[in-house]
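Record type: monomer structure entry
Structure origin: computed from sequence
Chain ID: A
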Amino acid sequence: GMESTRQSKISKLLQIEVADIIQKQVQIQLRSTFITVSKVMVTRDMSIARFYLSIFPSENAKETVKFVEENASLIRKLLGNKVRNQLRIVPNLEFYIDDSLDYIQNLENLLQK
């Protein structure tokens, strides 16, 4: 079904904030792996937010997602501090590998320009 406007607003907010946290807290520990939050889906009741991560190089994807998951409670805590004025409840965070090839394709096209 179609996401409500509120859901998509919250998805956007979470995407921006979690990408920022990952960049500042998680990325630094992974040196040569690049993580992009490509998509966020929030459940209707706002209890769960699913983050799809594009990971480059892709052979690091599995252990990178594992590492992010191990840090999920820290990420959620930092997120809570950032969005407490906008959100009453901070959803539980789930992380998945975004293995859609569109993303890689777009990246390659950008790099060739």
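Annotation 1: The beta strands are 34-42, 48-56, 92-97.
Annotation 2: The chain has a mean pLDDT of 89.
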